[in-house]
Amino acid sequence: MAKSLPVSPLAPASFPALPVVKGVRFAAAAAGVKYQGRTDVMLAVMDPGTAVAGVFTRSKTRSAPVLDCQAKLGGGADAGAAILVNSGNSNAFTGHHGQTSVAEITSAVAAATGLPAERVFTASTGVIGEPLPHDRIVAKISELNDALDETALEGAARAIMTTDTFAKGASATVGIEGKTIKIAGIAKGSGMIAPDMATMLVYIFTDAKVEQAALQAQLAEICDRTFNCITVDSDTSTSDSLMLCATGASGVDATGNAEFASGLERVMLDLAHQVVRDGEGASKFVEIQVTGGASDADAKVHGLAIANSPLVKTAIAGEDPNWGRVVMAIGKSGAAADRDLLSISFGDVLVAEKGWVSPGYKEELGAAEMKKQEITIKVDLGLGSGQATVWTCDLTHQYISINADYRS
């Protein structure tokens, strides 16, 4: 999409100041993948000793870069690693052309950096079904390698944007036994967001030392509470990739450390929320809290049913406290529910209880909650102790406008 979009009203005031993570350097360039003069490729190169973990889309039509990354995970860390990402073209549904493009790019990065090709990971985001002009990317790799800088993470964040209206970054600093560990991450995502592993493209870097298998397990676990709890439009991308790289440059072993896990979760949740706040056409950030489920899994099913309902999302866009649409979404989810035990609140306003509108509810109170830019919908199912929280945004006319001419 060539034309620029207005920055989301839910965007942070500015890109955050991210700490330097020792052991990784970044560069970005304009390769002309889809548009001339637009920064659209980034390279990250990690030092020897870096452990790499990743979680990827479960789409049955996932892209060639995703398949390649999945095959490479778990390899030895002695040689370091590199990640190259392009925007403008997803290199998905491109058959053998997609595999050729991945091979050409990884070979070129390996030659420029001195890394083995099996330690070069790639990702592509953008239009599906068009061959990737990988020659344009390959032509920029020497330039990227020469420009690598440990302070250039923001430029990398901007290079991976597509319909994003702002670059996304987050960080945390963690103290362990008197020593400091840094975590910094970037993400892209705005539309085609429905969690089925993580979200669009996310890259997180830390100078902690963590064994690869432990890092992989930790990433997957936290992903279920963060990126797997967001949705914009119920569509899962062919290219979703989340990678976590632990360079070990701090010398601090964080394997199994609770403080490190907490810091990592803060970064992941921050980035996940930013993706929702940049939902295509979004004007409202919505948190859905579900309690009283027969299980946590059931509570999450209900939460996502509400979050993905076009009728719920359009009512929110129109600032209409139509709690009947929440009831509808719960009823269709397929998870356990009992109409006569159900309670619904908008913010702190109790709207419905025990299968009927609350006796004290006044429409103007619900309407006032819907006028807020950040809205909380609370549902208590009254069945057990299961609970879940998911995050979404409203669905506006702008979403249609963006996607109706996405390829134009």
Descriptive report:
The protein has 408 residues and is of the alpha+beta class. The protein is built from twelve helices and 15 strands. It has helices at residues 64-72, 95-113, 134-138, 141-146, 153-159, 212-225, 258-277, 296-308, 310-317, 323-332, 363-370, 397-404; strands spanning 24-29, 41-46, 51-56, 81-89, 120-127, 168-176, 179-188, 201-206, 241-246, 285-293, 343-346, 349-353, 356-357, 374-380, 386-393. A six-stranded mixed β-sheet has the order 13-12-11-14-10-15. A hairpin with a 2-residue loop joins strand 6 (168-176) and strand 7. It is globular. The N and C termini lie close together (6 Å). The model has no long low-confidence stretch (mean pLDDT 93). It comes from Leisingera caerulea.
Computed Rg: 22 Å
Largest sheet: 6 strands, mixed
Structure summary, number of beta strands: 15
Net shape:
globular
Overall pLDDT confidence: 93
**Proportion of strand residues:** 15-25%
> What portion of residues is helical?
25-40%
Total of helices: 12
Low-confidence stretches: none
From N to C, what is the helix and strand string? EEEHEHEHHHEEEHEHEHHHEEEHEEH
Major beta sheet, strand line-up? 13-12-11-14-10-15
Termini distance? 6 Å
Question: From the helix content, strand content and strand pairing, which structural class follows?
Answer: alpha+beta
